Amino acid sequence: MFRDQNVIKLLLYRLKRKADPNRIDNVWDGVVLWELLNRKVEIDGQVQDYTYGELDIDVFLVFTCDGISIHKGIGAWQSQTEYACFPLELLILNLPLEVQMQD
């Protein structure tokens, strides 16, 4: 996947996108990532000479999980069954939103 030239171009979205300072259109516009990108990496208490996302080849991932009851009730805590479903999703934040959210 990461050897494909088209995928490589898509992964550069993070660097090439034009942000509007008055709007939050994407996770990259939020304060949390902005602060992370401006912070030095720390490993075992040692501050490194580089920041998160400093390299164009840095890839940002987010892992999401949300549980739902399969049967009766709303939420597993109200359900009369022990079965629940926890879909897991791994997103590559470097990709454009329309690619991240494809089925």
- Flag low-confidence runs: none
Largest sheet, in brief, is:
2 strands, antiparallel
* Strands, total number: 6
Look at the structure and give the mean pLDDT. 84
The end-to-end span amounts to: 17 Å
Notable features of this structure?
single chain; two-stranded antiparallel ribbon; 21% helix; 23% strand; 103 residues; alpha+beta; two-stranded antiparallel sheet
Structure description:
This protein has 103 residues and is α+β, with helices and mostly antiparallel strands. It has one domain. Strands 1-2 form a two-stranded antiparallel ribbon. A hairpin with a 2-residue loop joins strand 1 and strand 2.
List the helices and strands and how they pair.
Elements: H1 5-11, H2 13-16, H3 31-37, E1 40-43, E2 46-51, E3 61-65, E4 68-69, E5 84-85, E6 88-92, H4 97-100
Short description:
The protein has 103 residues and is α+β, with helices and mostly antiparallel strands. It has four helices and six strands.
